[in-house]
Design goal:
EC number: 2.7.1.11
Strand order of the largest sheet: 12-11-10-13-14-21-22-25
Structural class: alpha/beta
Enzyme class: transferase
CATH topology of the largest domain: Rossmann fold
Pathway: Carbohydrate degradation; glycolysis; D-glyceraldehyde 3-phosphate and glycerone phosphate from D-glucose: step 3/4
Family: Belongs to the phosphofructokinase type A (PFKA) family. ATP-dependent PFK group I subfamily. Eukaryotic two domain clade "E" sub-subfamily.
Radius of gyration: 28 Å
GO molecular function: 6-phosphofructokinase activity; AMP binding; ATP binding; fructose-6-phosphate binding; identical protein binding; metal ion binding; monosaccharide binding
Number of domains: 4
Largest sheet: 8 strands, mixed
Number of helices: 21
Shape: globular
CATH class of the largest domain: Alpha Beta
CATH architecture of the largest domain: 3-Layer(aba) Sandwich
Helix content: 25-40%
């Protein structure tokens, strides 16, 4: 006899199917300067809006188009945003508009919107654009009254359009210090961190020391608006003249200018923009007459909505603090991410004299384990230099655990890691060998070199290896030291972390290849491309790459499929070929199904699509691992490794008793991972239950929530859980001190 049924847990999830856009009109505009990813945001707004039943309009040429009206405001179709993802800048145009700053200009704009019953506005732009949008919203009812009095609209139109809802997306290249590839700069000048008096002599001395160390190339980055501590401008030409006069070095000035606005948007920009575009539509659908204008954004991996004017006020406070020479306050107001970037740069930018360094007498080893991942070298460089700055003696282990038990260990110094940031692969060497069968020899090498702490940078083998070492602590005292792992793998399949070093570069490789493949078919109609990606059993690369590249279908292990699904996908593409978009893109994770191989899917699509479309296939292979790391991976690797080294320093101090280091609690063998909004240190022993060891993936993966979004943007009917969509929050000014276990990145 069956036992009593367990009580049903209340389902608190919220699905977007309950949010209808029927009868609503949404307009999207881009304003201010061009920024990569704007088109991805426009595409997402248009397709999500149409998907929920709303009418969606383009407003061409920003606020100027809204004021001028006419053909500048056009209804968008699903097909009209095809092929926008890979285009830089903004295809709907962006223009500065003096007229919109006047009351008369805003009155014209209001009239043009009311004529089309547009009461939902999505504005993609910078501070000025968003401030103008909020003013427009505040004046809206008064503008309607004027239009009514002038006989330009009737009472019914005024009632029907009584409330204007505005959602902003920040489309600006002036984000913060993250926008600079901070990890290659010998010297950086930014407005928020003016150099101290005498900086000219200090800089020239450092450049001279670099040249003496045989470093031939020096890079100095000067941000627009850089100043000294007396608010005097620091310009590239001033620095060039200074270097030539004092040192006689051949010096060139390159002003990047609008080159920074152009180019193909990265995978990260496309995904961020697509998620924000969908979130903007959700915010508009949920808005009531009393909802304040908001800005949608992502913090870590979490969608958030912030009151627009609080964001603008915060930016104005930054400028006020800088005008008053309160530079530390300006940095704090910029936000925690900016602050952390800056503190990491300070740690790594200048080598202290040996006499200035603390003497910790601790030896710390750093190693790479698993397959190569772009950004590993940036992480090693950061770890070595932060370790040296904190007084440790740093040791490099070559070729992972295999090199460890063979004794391939040597001291590594500050200059040894110069120039590592931009190099792909692993300069230390990395192998997949696990330590379990070589514990005696590894313990012996730790004893010989007196290793007091271990930093492992790598993939799934690094995680399993750390589990094996920490599990053997009862038998080997040598393993009773602080140990921390930093995830670095293109597959992004490590439990305890939403992101891994190297996965962004791999996504860019996938996205770039898909762009080229689609471009190759620009003169060919009715063609479908089937692309195989890496990732083992983890579908992260295929799914997120598919979202960034605009794929029609993505096959992964985590979402089982059968022959009926394949047939439905072929039928979907058949219908698509009847529209003006006569091109298809299908991604397949390498291990998604042992029977439905890439060849099988290619042959099935070829046969079933005969007479409607033809097929091509491409296996991307190891090109996803290679190449120079993306700016994101350089930045991420640098910051995460620096944070890991600071944890090692704290834990060494806490576990040093009786003249030796002894650390055997589970908290002293950790993985440092990104969880939603924060970087968190988690004991590897606690991550066991979260791991599917057979398929080498976490049991729960955050990115699976992106799959419905990908399907919606490809015009599939699907269910979309929006429980995690942004709730209105407030801009935080005063923050609690960080704990040892977590911090924002």
């Amino acid at each position: 006899m069956a036992g009593a049924a367990a009580p049903k847990r209340q389902d608190t999830r919220k699905f977007f199917e309950n949010l209808s856009g029927a009868g609503k009109s949404i307009a999207v505009l881009t304003s201010g300067g061009d920024a990569q990813g704007m088109n991805a945001a426009v595409r997402a707004v248009v397709r999500m809006g149409i998907y929920v039943g709303a009418k969606v309009y383009f407003i061409h040429e920003g606020y100027q188009g809204m004021v001028d009206g006419g053909d500048n405001i056009k209804e968008a179709t699903w097909e009209s945003v095809s092929s926008m993802l890979q285009v830089g800048g903004t295809v709907i145009g962006s223009a500065r508009c003096k007229e919109f700053r006047t009351h008369e200009g805003r009155l014209k704009a209001a009239h043009n919107l009311v004529q089309r019953n547009i009461t939902n506005l999505c504005v993609i732009g910078g501070d000025g654009s968003l401030t103008g949008a909020n003013l427009f919203r505040e004046e809206w009812s008064g503008l309607l009254d004027e239009l009514l009095q002038q006989g330009l609209i009737d009472e019914e139109a005024a009632q029907r359009n009584s409330a204007l809802h505005i959602v902003g997306m920040v489309g600006s290249i002036d984000n913060d210090f993250c926008g600079t590839d901070m990890t290659i700069a010998d010297w950086v000048f930014i407005p928020e961190m003016p150099p101290e008096d005498g900086w000219e002599d200090s800089m020239c001395q450092k450049l001279s020391e670099n040249r003496a160390d045989k470093k031939r190339l020096n890079i100095i980055i000067v941000a627009e608006g850089a100043i000294d501590s007396h608010n005097k401008a620091i310009t590239p030409d001033y620095i060039k003249d200074l270097v030539v006069r004092c040192l006689g070095f051949d010096t060139r000035v390159t002003i990047l200018g609008h080159v920074q606005r152009g180019g193909t948007p990265s995978a990260f920009d496309r995904i961020l923009a697509s998620r924000m575009g969908v979130e903007a539509v959700l915010a508009l659908l949920e808005a009531s007459a009393n909802t304040p204008a908001c800005v949608v954004s992502l913090v870590g991996n979490q969608a958030v909505r912030l009151p627009l004017m609080e964001c603008v006020q915060m930016t104005q406070e930054v400028q006020k603090a800088m005008d008053e020479k309160k530079f530390d306050e300006a940095v704090r107001l910029r936000g925690r991410s900016f602050e952390n970037n800056l503190s990491t740069y300070r740690l790594l930018s200048y080598r202290k004299a040996d006499s200035e360094l603390p003497n910790s007498s601790f030896n710390v080893a750093v190693m790479n384990v698993g397959a190569p991942a772009a950004g590993m070298n940036a992480a090693v460089r950061s770890a070595v230099r932060v370790g040296i700055t904190e007084g440790h003696k740093m040791f490099a282990v070559n070729d992972g655990f295999e090199g460890f038990y063979k004794g391939q260990i040597k001291e590594i110094k500050w200059g040894d890691v110069g120039g590592w940031t931009g190099q792909g692969g692993s300069l230390l060497g990395t192998k997949r060998t696990l330590p379990g069968k070589h514990l005696d020899k590894i313990a012996e090498q730790m004893r010989i070199h007196n290793i007091n702490a271990l930093l492992v940078i790598g993939g799934f083998e690094a995680y399993v290896g750390l589990l094996e070492l920490s599990s053997a602590r009862d038998k080997y005292n040598e393993f009773c030291v602080p140990m921390v792992m930093v995830p670095a793998t293109v597959s992004n399949n490590i439990p305890g972390s939403d992101l891994s070093i190297g996965s962004d570069t791999a996504l860019n490789a996938i996205t770039d290849t898909c762009d080229r493949i689609k471009q190759s078919a620009s003169g060919t109609k009715r063609r479908v491309f089937i692309i195989e990606t890496m990732g083992g059993y983890c579908g992260y690369l295929a799914t997120v790459g598919g979202l960034a590249a605009g794929a029609d279908t993505v096959y992964i292990y985590e979402e089982p499929f059968d022959i009926r699904d394949l047939q439905a996908n072929v039928e979907h593409l058949t219908q698509k070929m009847k529209t003006s978009i006569q091109r298809g893109l299908v991604l397949r994770n390498e291990n998604c199904n042992e029977n439905f191989t890439t060849d099988f899917i290619y042959q099935l699509y070829t046969e079933e699509g005969r007479g409607v479309f033809d097929c091509r296939k491409n296996i991307l292979g190891h090109m996803q691992q290679g190449g120079a790391p993306s700016p994101f991976d350089r930045n991420f690797g640098t910051k995460v490794a620096a944070k890991a080294m600071q944890w090692i320093t704290r834990t060494l101090k806490d576990s040093y008793k009786g003249g030796r280091v002894f650390a055997n609690s589970e908290e002293t063998a950790c993985l440092l991972g990104m969880r939603r909004r924060a970087m968190v240190f988690q004991p590897v022993s606690q991550l066991r239950d979260e791991t599917d060891f057979v398929h080498r993936i976490p049991k729960e993966q955050w990115w699976l929530k992106l799959r419905p979004l990908m399907k919606i943007l490809a015009k599939y009917k699907t269910s979309y859980d929006v429980s995690d969509s942004g709730q209105l929050e407030h801009v935080t000014r005063v923050r609690p001190k960080e704990s040892n276990t977590s911090s924002a990145i």
